[in-house]
Amino acid sequence: MSLKSERRGIHVDQSELLCKKGCGYYGNPAWQGFCSKCWREEYHKARQKQIQEDWELAERLQREEEEAFASSQSSQGAQSLTFSKFEEKKTNEKTRKVTTVKKFFSASSRVGSKKEIQEAKAPSPSINRQTSIETDRVSKEFIEFLKTFHKTGQEIYKQTKMFLETMHYKRDLSIEEQSECTQDFYQNVAERMQTRGKVPPERVEKIMDQIEKYIMTRLYKYVFCPETTDDEKKDLAIQKRIRALHWVTPQMLCVPVNEEISEVSDMVVKAITDIIEMDSQRVPRDKLACITRCSKHIFNAIKITRNEPASADDFLPTLIYIVLKGNPPRLQSNIQYITRFCNPSRLMTGEDGYYFTNLCCAVAFIEKLDAQSLNLSQEDFDRYMSGQTSPRKQESENWSPDACLGVKQMYKNLDLLSQLNERQERIMSEARKLEKDLIQWTDGVAKEVQDIVEKYPLEIKPPNQPLAAIDSENVENDKLPPPLQPQVYAG
């Protein structure tokens, strides 16, 4: 039975892409549906609440330990020296833990001890080592760019160098805290340029792009997919999920793209290339540019197929299909990296933010994709997911999960050869039929000509007598007088 009448497309209301707080900016699943600005506000509130609760817990634990220590000193003073030392050691250890908790949430912990500051001022081997060619190139471009701003450029370069030094000594912090420091730096630099430097907004945006490129090229290998996060685990999970969904067809997703058109097929290939190329970029803005180029190729493919501009309801299913077909490497790590360290204004507004939000929605859809999403029965969905059968060839043999992939590919190739052989035989049969028809047509024409000739025979008459010459009857031509000769008249 055809599913066209029952099939529904993947529809996402544009309001669902916006921040759920209603500020008008684009939200992000990584920020629980908030935009960058609202997420930071909520994060700060939750963090302050957690710090307050930890303070109260630390004070309560300290009071309980002090009371327990005082009671043990008064009631058990006559115990042996060994037991007293054990209790004292135990109490001191607990007190030290409480003090450590209090120091962790105190402001002094951020500054660090004098010894740590002295060690921090010492040159690090990682700083003194030779930087990569790309880092040197980006640094030269950044310096040349800032030269056009004179004093403002010098101040920006000084702040950027100080920020990099600070981030070098904050590598032990969590990736969320490093992201918070980076976002604060973006915000402070932008506000300072607008208030103190009186820099126009369009130039501020260009400067912020160069700042992001400079600092993230240097911090990339420390903050992209760090070991302290589960980004790599999420990458493997989404890759495994996409591989398991290799059987999903464009028709199941209601993708309005016809890949049989050569120009559309080229657009699909370019879109897949761009989404895969995202992993090779270091700067969040460059990764976003890959997503934007991929999305524009998708819109062009839909436009060529339908001969009309594409809508948002057409775009998202096609983007999901491109992600499934391309299976981009380290997809979750790239999304998290952009979310954490990209200039927030770029994610909150503009086409880059819109396309990035749609990509996050596409990944979320793939993670939660089920039988109902594809208008399939649960039985068929489970069979497809387990690899027992494929929707492209229902009559194929049911393979066991541990079957050799090479054998599967061999039978698939044999099936293709069988199909090609059938097509070849069909073509040869049609060719022989055409040859027979031509022979019959030739014989029929010859027979019709022969019948006409027999019915109307051709009579050949002798040629007519040619006309005789005027003097033909003159036999005595020699008796004729000679012809007149011209005479000269003298006179």
From TrEMBL:
Keywords: Acetylation, Cytoplasm, Endocytosis, Endosome, Metal-binding, Phosphoprotein, Protein transport, Transport, Ubl conjugation, Ubl conjugation pathway, Zinc, Zinc-finger. GO terms for biological process: endocytosis; protein transport. Residues 66-85, 462-491 are annotated as: Disordered. The keyword Cell membrane does not apply. Pfam families: DUF5601, VPS9, zf-A20. Residues 232-375 form the VPS9 domain. Its main location: cytoplasm. PROSITE patterns: VPS9 (PS51205), ZF_A20 (PS51036). Residues 13-47 form the A20-type domain. InterPro entries: DUF5601 (IPR041545), VPS9 (IPR003123), Vps9-like (IPR045046), VPS9_dom_sf (IPR037191), Znf_A20 (IPR002653). It is found in: Cytoplasm; Early endosome; Recycling endosome. The keyword Heme does not apply. GO terms for molecular function: DNA binding; guanyl-nucleotide exchange factor activity; small GTPase binding; zinc ion binding. Residues 69-84 have a biased composition (Low complexity). One of its GO terms (cellular component) is early endosome. PANTHER family: RAB GDP/GTP EXCHANGE FACTOR (PTHR23101), RAB5 GDP_GTP EXCHANGE FACTOR (PTHR23101:SF126). This is Rab5 GDP/GTP exchange factor. The lineage of its organism: Eukaryota, Metazoa, Chordata, Craniata, Vertebrata.
